[in-house]
Amino acid sequence: MNSERISFCAYDTLCRIQVQTPLPHARAFGLLQRARDIAFEVQDCLSMFNPGSELSVLARDSVPGVFQRVSPMLYSFLEQNMEICRLTDGAFDPTVAPLVKLWDFLADEPRVPDDEALAAALGQVGYRHIRLDARTRRVCFARSGITVDPGAAGKGLAGCYPGPCRPRRRHRHGGAGRFGRGHILVVRALL
Q: Based on the structure, what is the number of domains in the chain?
């Protein structure tokens, strides 16, 4: 069995995808390129730093109380996140984006915000302000300023996204799954 891999940067993270397969190099590399493309599709959909991503557009253009149709990828991501929120009674809350942006961890010199800025940002946090309608695949933010930080959950989605390289089982360091007969994909975010 051959082992092929590809490395690239996505989500401000070094990612490596590896496939172990009896397939010839060219075909295995094609699988790797498709898996990388899926990772970039997830990044393009879920980035909170790219103003053109579907997630950013949803947060920016949402009108409180008005449902908007979203892509299957974004809906699935939000649905999974809301389930985790419910299971953890809010200990996991992806609406922390206003706080993450306030601290600006990606800046050369992040600063601790003042109490007034923190209070304002906290007013825009709370997973219970997100409503989902599974029947129509629509999303509603109940108040203005709600923004979702995809963080690690977005990276995990890329490793397990149901596409042509759909994983059937997961490993503790990333997603892994089979491509038909013995073709295994392993996705890891390298720190």
A: 2
Within this chain, do residues 167 and 143 fall inside the same structural domain, yes or no? no
Query: The tokens of 10 are what?
Result: 């996505």
Exposed, middle or buried by CB within 10 Å (0-12, 13-18, 19+), for 147?
A: buried
In single-letter form, the type of residue at position 78 comes to: L
Residue 40 shares a structural domain with residue 82? no
- Give 59-93 pLDDT, tens digit per residue: 999 999 999 999 999 999 999 999 999 999 988 89
What phi and psi, each to the nearest 5 degrees, are found at residue 100? Answer: -60, -45
Rounded to whole angstroms, the Cα distance separating 49 from 71 reads 19
Is residue 179 a contact partner of residue 31, using CB atoms and an 8 Å limit?
yes
Residues 9 and 37 in one domain: yes
Mean pLDDT of 102-108: 81
